[in-house]
Structure formats: structure tokens, C-alpha cells
Amino acid sequence: MTTKQVGLIEKVLRMWSEGKSGTEIALATNISRSAVQGHLHRARQNHDARAKLRGQMNSHMYLAMKRASLAQDAYGEILAKRPKPEPKPKPTEKELPRPKDPPPPPPQARLLEHLSRNSCRYCYSDEAPYLLCGEPTSASSSWCEEHRRIVFKFVRTKPLTPRELAL
């Protein structure tokens, strides 16, 4: 470290201990405010007493000041203590409804290995054995007409036009 840098650090620490702000020190020393804070931070890491943080106090002093400020209003009159809010009642545990048993698969349900290319692949349950419908489908669909209505629910986004109503 050069003597110029040492002199700059000494000047920053002296001005800080005099109560100058970081901006004032930065303007006086012609360095950025971040550089001033960096010099102070490194001095604190080296346990330099001149770089101590301002505004620190013991926690018990802070609490005593907080209690004193809460006890008086802006006009110096003592205020009554606020009542503590009542605790919220604990929610009662409701018994959750049991899920309904899935309906038994129809007698024509088949395993996947027994389906052909144009067979309906609607699955009756999510548990093994995976039983599928197996009814014949059109060439462009994986489901029969009955299950296609279940899988694709048509939702109209706009009202019917008079022409559509006439059909």
C-alpha cells in the first residue's frame, strides 16, 4: 500500500469519526461513496475503533427507549395500554369425505395388449390392471364416440348466432 493510499484511508477514518457522512467524505476526498464504505468496512474487519458503526446500541437500551416512546403520545400524555387481541380459535378437524369407489369396469374392458390399432384407449382406472374400453374408433381418434364426449368437453366461448340457433 502506498503512502498516498494510507493517507487517504486515515483521512476517511478521521472524517468518519468526526461524524461526517459517506457522501461528505466522498466529496472531500474525490472518491466514490462506495469506495468510502469499502474503506470503512475493511477497517472494521481489522478492528479499527475509528470505523465503528454509528447508531448501534445495546438491545436492552433499545427496548427501554421503545417502551418509553410507546407510553406517551405526541403531546406527552400517557396512553392506556392496548388490550391484547384474543387468540384465534383453532380450526376443528373435519372428517374428510371418503372418495367414492370407482364404478366397476364394463364387461367388454380389455388389457392394452389385447387392443388393435383402431380400439378405444379410454382407461377405466389409474390402478393396475389398466383396463381399457376397446370399442372401435374412427381413424383419426383414440377414443370411441362415447368416451370422446367425456375426454373433450366442448365449452362455448361466445353466444350462439341466430343462424346457429336456427339449425
TrEMBL record:
Region (Disordered): 74-110
Top-level lineage group: Bacteria
Biased composition (Basic and acidic residues): 79-101
Protein name: GcrA cell cycle regulator
Species the sequence originates in: Candidatus Phycosocius bacilliformis
Taxonomic lineage from the root: Bacteria, Pseudomonadati, Pseudomonadota, Alphaproteobacteria, Caulobacterales
